[in-house]
Amino acid sequence: MSEGERGRRLARLAALRESGVDPFPPRPGPRTPIAEVRDLYDGKDSEALEAEAPTAAVAGRVRAIRSFGKLAFLKLVESGIGIQVSIRRGEVPTDLFEFVEEIDVGDFLRVEGPVWRTQKGELTIALRSADLLSKSLRPLPEKWHGLTDVEARSRQRHLDLIANPRAREVAVLRSRVTTAIRSVLDERGFLEVETPVLQPIYGGAAARPFTTHHHTLDQTLYLRISDELYLKRLVIGGLDRVYEIGRVFRNEGISRKHNPEFSMLECYQSYTDYGGMMDLAQLLIQETAGRVLSDSRIGYQGHRIELSGDWPRISMRDAIRDAIAIDILAADDRESLRAAVRAKGLDPGDAPTWAVLVDGLFSEHVEPGLIQPTFITDYPRDLSPLAKGSPRDPRLVERFELFLGGFEIVNAFSELNDPEDQRRRFEDQRRAAAEGDAEAHPMDEDFLNALEYGMPPTGGLGMGIDRLTMTLADAPNLREVILFPHLRTERR
Fold first, then answer.
1. Structural domains counted in the chain
2. Which of 211, 228, 363, 489 could be cross-linked to 204 through a Cys-Cys bond (beta carbons 3.0 to 4.6 Å apart)?
3. Would you say the pTM of this structure is higher than 0.85?
């Protein structure tokens, strides 16, 4: 933006004030939303409008100005919906025409006048009165030139929303996703609750927390990495179906699939298991897509994904065996699995445990190919300290992750409800932390105490709202669907 253009607008602002016009009035005056005006008159031709002679008062941001001397056209936009406004010298007082001539693209304006159609059939309001609602001191980007990369758009989301219809569409879609999820759960008897964001002990996920301090209590607190342990307390207390949609915070890297602050759905249901959670996860996504997109097929980054029908359920063991012909349960310690990986000509890396090595093999060789919705089940026990053990194999737990578009959308368990087993798992995590694992779960005595009162068989799941929105919006990066993603400090 040239300083000359801003200076010109500042001069117009000063002139308005000197003439007694408030460039930022407190109230807009009576108006009808532009969308309603279009609904009323879009279906009427010139003759019908002439016979009816309707008038309308609307307000919005000026997005375009075309002047032909004695005739000018403005485009007003409100909530993404536009309408044309015309003004002709001689049909209005001279001072009104001159006032409109001083309007800039970006200003907010209220206009009132007859509704008509131009010779080209454009629905138009013939301006008879006008009020400036807000003066814009900076010009808007012209058709988004010079601001096309994702980071620039994320840093200036206000401009992105103004100039890029796609940004508005994604923002609206994301809101509709959370609304749909709430509706599906509410209709099935789930109760929406709120749990602490600031927690004295973090837990519920393998992640590094953000740390803060409460000065009055002289207490170290953590921004939650999950709300799992609090929601389970509610299940223990007799709230058999609960959920929360909220922000969680993980002190981790930034990528197309990761942001330190993101939105998560967590829900818990008594008297079911991870099989019931698979049914619920499938229902949630199918219903959400149906309500938001009205289609069971979505396009994601060049792939056609079908959401209808029952989704395959494949054990992690079978998925890895199918991908690289290695049986992780036949090689069930770190060294034997490393040897099996080398025998296939692959690099086993330096994973500290068998479970971590299994996870790495899956992430590298299986996950990217899981484009169609697929449940991966039965994870290594040591990767899942809050999940109930598998009755079929003590090395595994009843856990699944749902993959869609090549990345994880849902993580879920049959919840561990044996307090003694849970204590042993926490002790294992404490030893891992002492050995340098920054993402190990801390010991939570308050949760263990609650668990000793008894928790019924329970299934729980966590769903990344932002990742789900990525797939439904065909967005390549989380920054496209999070209105204000975390970015590096901009150097000036």
1. 2
2. 228
3. yes
